[in-house]
Amino acid sequence: MEPVSTEPVSTEHVTAFRRFNRYFTRRIGALDDHYLGQDRPLGEARLLFEISESGAGVSLRELRSRLGLDAGYLSRMAKALEAQGMVRIAVHPDDNRLRMVELTRAGHVELKEQQRRANALVAHLLGGLTDRQRADLTEAMTTTRRLLRLAAITVDLVDGASEDAQACLDAYAADIDDRFPEGFDTSDLVRPEEVSGDTGAFFVAYEEDRPVGCGALRRLEDGVGEIRHVWVHPDARRLGLARRILDALEREGRRRAFDVVRLDTHAVLTEAQAMYRACGYREIPAYVDHVYAHHWFEKRLRD
To answer: Interior CA angle at 185 toward 175 and 154, to 5°?
Structure first.
């Protein structure tokens, strides 16, 4: 596994990223107050789309969280769309603290036209490329989105008894209960005191403040740590996040002066076995009698 770089980001990388941003935003018309030739900027056009994705209605609070927008800025955009007859804003019937927003009939018509124009713009952009070049561009954009998502995710040390830690463990347990032929007994989960303070550590991965993964490290004996419950939410898989979590656990093991870390895994978790081998773990004889273990691995952290 290639660990997360500890070197400062180079000026070359920063410059290339910003150059691409400037080109792309200009090319798709993001700088135009009349995005796609309609009577609104990109921000309002995007807000129409996000409201439509929520079906019957969505709270401004949820939209603010989803889009990462300032509350005042979002409120002004919503009111502008309301004044244009594109949306309706009302108080939630069961919670007067929430303001709900939904598209009007005119809003649905406007969004349909917006989608048509957006598709036409993209088709025009791709029209000058060969089939192979279009495929290459699509692959490059998929990779770019994956890496940008991964870059934005943080892996943070949290208390093992925290709400987020326990929520991740609950999700982990439900996930593997579906996958293990014999099911899974939650009594096998690590206890908060095993993965907090001097005895261990618990990491949670966050994407836009939402927990999307976790991993635990606990002390087995002097110089030996054990990794448990490396898990990634289905929505965040295939990003490389499991390796990021594993890297954080290994760095924590080094900080705690562990010479080696060990782990075990179930026979059905073939993707986990492949990842551990690719990350430098070697298979060893059983080091513990664990009902869900079929393969045991270890990795030296210090020579």
So the answer is: 40
Distance CA 11, CA 289 (A): 51
CA–CA–CA angle 5, 9, 14 (5° rounding): 140
Angle at CA 298, nearest 5°, toward 295 and 299?
145
The alpha-helical segments, DSSP class H, found in the chain are 11-27, 42-53, 60-67, 71-83, 105-126, 131-152, 163-179, 241-255, 270-278
- Is the CB of residue 151 less than 8 Å from the CB of residue 239? no
Inter-residue contact 288 to 266 (CB < 8 Å): no
Angle, to 10 degrees, between the axis of helix 60-67 and the axis of helix 42-53?
Answer: 120
Q: Please answer whether residues 149 and 239 qualify as being in contact, where contact means their C-beta atoms are separated by less than 8 angstroms.
A: yes
Query: Over 80: is that where the pLDDT of 303 sits?
Result: no
Q: pLDDT per residue over 263-282, tens digit each?
A: 999 999 999 999 999 999 99
Q: Among positive and negative, which fits the CA dihedral 47, 48, 49, 51?
A: positive
